[in-house]
Amino acid sequence: MIALSILILMPFALNYPLLSIELLGVKIDASVWGGVWKMATQGYPYTAFLVFICAVFMPISFALLVIFLRISQLLEIKPRNLLIAITYIKPWVMFDVYLVALGVTVFKVREYASLHIDSYLIAFVFTALLTTLLFIKLNPKELWNDFYPNNNPLTEIPQDNQPHFCTECQYTFTNALEDRKHNLICPRCHSKLHTSADIRLQRTWATLLAGIVMIFPANLLPMSVIYVNGAPTSDTLMSGVLSFINMGSYFIAFIVFTASIFVPISKILIMLYLLSCVHFKLRHSVKWQMRLLHFVHFVGRWSMLDLFVLALMMSLVARGQIIDFSVGPAAFYFGIAVFLTMVSTSQFDSRLIWKIYDYK
């Protein structure tokens, strides 16, 4: 019912105006889809695609998958691929982040023009709240157990047949299946078992190093350029924070600084620390190390805040007016850095930390 309510509200939340400004007596509306479309058609298609994935495609897909799971349950179908998909899609649904981006946009635009809140914002707020509620209600591990119940749970570890553990569906079992290449696979989700630690570390390092490379132009190049009466004013990530401080919006400056600067850099530093612990067998505190890993998993998605603000600004401030807004070259690098670091944290296997303490 929650997923169905989200789909009903989606057209109003995505396509209808959420904010509007008046410039020279002309009303200009801002919507989620309008921001993505303007960004794509005015020379920034790759940045628009990143916003589209997190703000439009993933939320709709997430709600549809939940409905398909319910239909599968009624028809007594085993939806193996749907369960795998919903596990991967869940971290990329960022309606709550977009809601905060709306608040930041309000403070950013109000110094240039009078701003009005449209009634369709209520639909967007309810959609964001329902999506968060669906996050709370939906537990992928419980869904796997509902569709694929474990009728023979392990009560003790057999000596002659060591059990296997599948990281995809959190299933523990003794008898694994084989695929066509004679690789061991999980009998429940058919995922490949026993991927070597070296391969997992290579995936984590590759995406993390690529994200580190992207974070430099993301912080040094302009994130946005605003033309007021033909005079350009470019803002980097840090100068954008300073502009909010100069306006007296200290709380908004704190939010932007945390999401755009502190979170991406701290996430990279934490991942470098955890990878160093794995490689050099550093035994500091396993409880502390696991808390750091949970932290980067939780906060990583909030770095998309800046891109959502840019999309809303593109929708509000059209070209050819007294106020002209343009996305800076740093936006694409910043979005790619966020994506790569999120992939890096998802590839990191927490069992590698626990294995540090197996060595004598």
TrEMBL record:
One matching Pfam family: PqiA
Topology of the protein relative to the lipid bilayer: Multi-pass membrane protein
Signal peptide: none
Main location: membrane
TM helices/strands, residue ranges: 44-69, 81-107, 119-136, 205-228, 248-275, 295-318, 330-348
UniProt-annotated location(s): Cell inner membrane
Keywords noted in UniProt: Cell inner membrane, Cell membrane, Membrane, Transmembrane, Transmembrane helix
Entry superkingdom: Bacteria
GO cellular component, one term: plasma membrane
Family that this chain belongs to: Belongs to the PqiA family.
Protein name: Integral membrane protein, PqiA family
Species of provenance: Pasteurella dagmatis ATCC 43325
Gene: pqiA
